[in-house]
Amino acid sequence: MDVRWQRLIDAAHEAMEHAYAPYSNYPVGAAALVSDGRIVSGCNVENAAYGVTLCAECGLISELVRGGGGMLEQFVCVDGRGEILMPCGRCRQLLAEHAAPDFAVRTVAGTTTMEGLLPDAFGAVDLRQRGNPDSKGARHE
């Protein structure tokens, strides 16, 4: 396994250890390599009002933006046993907003692209094409 993937898996596992999952008992951690070399991570944070639970990817994207932005190059998500997970549909959309053109996602079957993860993703370009000039999309400074 590529050393970069192992670093991301380790970072995702470390993030998972901080998860707040008292209702499902299903902790999740996620980690990604940013275009500037940083690794950002996040964990799931459950809530008694289940619909407002935050996925690990939400925390990861928040850390990315708080840390100055950038483009995600590689991504991995793990469960409490350290097994690789696929992000849910909502989280795939979050990742697409910040994915580099060559974004790679580690899956149980190997590695896939953003197109493989979320074919025909809807994004800022679609909003601009529909006449919303204020839609500049993600900040990638």
UniProtKB/TrEMBL annotation:
Listed GO biological process terms: nucleobase-containing small molecule metabolic process; pyrimidine-containing compound metabolic process
Listed GO MF terms: cytidine deaminase activity; identical protein binding; zinc ion binding
Active site: 57 (proton donor)
Key words of the record: Hydrolase, Metal-binding, Zinc
E.C. numbers: 3.5.4.5
Binding site for Zn(2+): 55, 88, 91
Record carries keyword Hydrolase: yes
SUPFAM superfamilies assigned to the protein according to its UniProt record, in alphabetical order: Cytidine deaminase-like
Known function: Recycles cytidine and 2-deoxycytidine for uridine and 2-deoxyuridine synthesis, respectively. Catalyzes the hydrolytic deamination of cytidine and 2-deoxycytidine to form, respectively, uridine and 2-deoxyuridine. This enzyme scavenges exogenous and endogenous cytidine and 2'-deoxycytidine for UMP synthesis.
Name recorded for this polypeptide: Cytidine deaminase
Organism, as annotated: Spelaeicoccus albus
